[in-house]
Amino acid sequence: HNLMQLYSKELENKIEHAQNMLKQILYDSSDYILLQSDREADRYYATVRLKSKMEDLMSVEQHVDSLMIADTKYQQCLDVNSRTLPFEEKEAIRRFMMDYAAQEEQTAQWRISKFAGEYCLYKIYLWKGRAVGTFITVSSFMETAASMDLSGMSILLTDDAGIVYGNYGSELKNLELGVSLDQLQDTSLQGF
Questions:
Q1: What is the pLDDT of residues 45-61, one digit of tens each?
Q2: CA atoms of 72 and 35, how far apart (whole Å)
Q3: Which of 50, 54, 71, 100 fits as disulfide partner to 80, beta carbons 3.0 to 4.6 Å?
Q4: Which is it for the CA torsion 69, 84, 141, 96, positive or negative?
């Protein structure tokens, strides 16, 4: 029971840290607004300062895989990655961010999507053609700092619809991801 509480707290901390990164870009930076300035020099220096701020934030954050800003007015996308993301995954996330920034206003909430074969947990704030988002691969999110023995238990990461996107623990190593709990045929889920 204590191990489950520790693991749960670790996951909460990962979410909180990612959320704080987004807030620092949104609320502590006038440069985010200057990305849409009519003056090219303002946009250029805002981009340089934002990129530096993003690098600083990512240098201390171990759990976020990518921090991105997209702007539709001048078609630019800034990103900083904590690990070497495969080119296909990075490009898929960039395209997603640009498309997302072009949408009408949406409520920012944590969601899961697949990018170039990898499930990512993400949250994006959208406002007037600009978007700032943080992306955490499910595998990175589910791994724990200290390898914990869950004594034959496993933890599943699901969305509101009950779709399984990740797991931690020894019992369900070969679990099929992207399917609902109801569809899983694995007998190890009996009584879940």
A1: 999 999 999 999 999 88
A2: 10
A3: 54
A4: positive
Is the whole model's pTM more than 0.90, yes or no? no
pLDDT tens column, 9-49: 888 999 999 999 999 998 877 898 899 999 999 999 999 99
Cβ distance 157 to 141 under 8 Å? yes
In the three-class reduction of DSSP (H, G, I as helix; E, B as strand; rest coil), residue 150 is classed as coil
User: What residue has token string 């200057």?
Assistant: 34
* Residues 75 and 98 sit within 8 Å (Cβ to Cβ): yes
CB 167 within 8 A of CB 154: yes
- C-alpha 35, offset from chain centre: 22
Polymer length of the chain: 192
Give 122's strand partners: 111, 135
- Kindly give, in sequence order, each residue whose CB lies less than 8 Å from that of residue 145, ignoring residues fewer than 6 positions away: 10
Among 187, 160, 192, residue whose Cα is nearest residue 175:
187
